[in-house]
Specification:
Elements (H helix, E strand, L loop, with lengths): L9 E2 L12 E7 L3 E8 L2 E5 L14 H5 L3 H9 L3 E7 L16 E8 L8 H11 L8 E4 L3 H8 L15 E5 L13 E4 L8 H4 L3 E3 L3 H9 L2 H15 L7 H23 L7 H15 L5
Parallel strand pairs: 1-9, 7-10
Antiparallel strand pairs: 2-7, 2-8, 3-4, 3-5, 5-6, 8-9
Length: 296
């Protein structure tokens, strides 16, 4: 299997990651090193930098020569030959304030099956990394329906691998494993600090923080499984059965009924809030997909 290049991280707020903050967001520290990848090939462990496969003579600042001598990473890749393991090879770059013992280690941050273009969820791959005692990056928080201010809070408290008293890390990466952008691609967002203690995150786990938006409140109040099932049954009856081509009709009908039949009462209940209708539509679609996941 040939090398597969890692995705480009998009700046939060860019068109490429519009709407990524809606849903369950895993906030990961962004480490300032050199991008790397390891996987198992026909002749053993293979390694790559961001743009090319490596050799022992051209090994990206010692990355490959370190990996081919590292039994935990060799066994990880050999036991899981269907996966790419992406991470950061921590060698000096812009940020020089990492702890001394953190340097020249490979921190895995994403795992992808070779037959898929989607990344595995953190909970689904963490156990295989723990089993082999390799280094990896854990989320510092999990945020539901976050806003920029919420992410800035995590950004300014990211001290993963950083020496005490030396400020914060390079930035954070926002991952929504259920997100696809409008071009159909899975991608992540990044927020970088203007200046360049992990406190036992692996042992304690990341706390889940929920910030309920007005639009989410409206959808949770009025779009329930009964409404979705009723709309689905009506389409099936009118069309003499179900076909995936009716999915847009289901999504649009539920949203139309929400706006036309329910919104006035919700505006009164919530005392005339400001409603972002793009967000309202997006959250409605997520609710339908969650309730009738077998249709998608």
């Amino acid at each position: 299997m040939d090398f597969r290049k890692y995705i480009h991280l998009e700046k939060f707020g860019n068109d490429e990651v519009q709407g990524i903050e809606l849903g369950r967001i895993y906030v990961f520290p962004k480490v300032d090193g050199s991008n790397g990848c390891v996987w198992w090939g026909e002749n053993g462990l293979r390694c790559a930098s961001r743009n090319r496969e490596l050799t022992t003579d051209n090994d990206n600042q010692g990355f490959m020569n370190t990996m081919i001598e590292s039994l935990p990473y060799i066994e990880l890749a050999k036991e899981n030959p269907d996966y790419y393991f992406y991470g950061e090879w921590l060698v000096p770059h812009s940020l020089k304030t990492y702890r001394e013992e953190a340097w020249r280690k490979f921190y895995i941050f994403d795992v992808q099956h070779k037959d898929s273009d989607k990344f595995m969820k953190f909970e689904d791959y963490e156990s295989m990394l723990k089993k082999h005692n390799v280094e990896y990056i854990t989320p510092i928080a999990v945020i539901k329906n976050g806003k920029y201010e919420n992410f800035l809070h995590e950004l300014n408290n990211n001290k993963f691998l950083v020496q005490d008293g030396e400020g914060v890390g390079e930035g954070i990466v926002l991952k929504n494993y259920n997100y696809q952008n409008k071009y159909g691609r899975q991608t992540w967002a990044k927020i970088i600090t203007t200046t360049f203690k992990d406190k036992h995150i692996k042992e304690m786990g990341a706390s889940v923080k929920e910030f309920k938006m007005i639009e989410q409140d409206i959808v949770d109040s009025k779009v329930d499984k009964h409404l979705i099932d009723k709309t689905y049954a009506k389409i099936v009856n009118e069309c003499n059965g179900w076909n995936s081509k009716y999915i847009p009709r289901l999504l649009n009908t539920v949203y139309h009924d929400l706006v036309r039949e329910e919104l006035w009462d919700e505006l009164k209940r919530l005392k005339n809030p400001t409603v972002n209708f793009n967000t309202l539509h997006h959250v409605t679609v997520l609710k339908i997909k969650e309730a009738r996941s077998e249709l998608f």
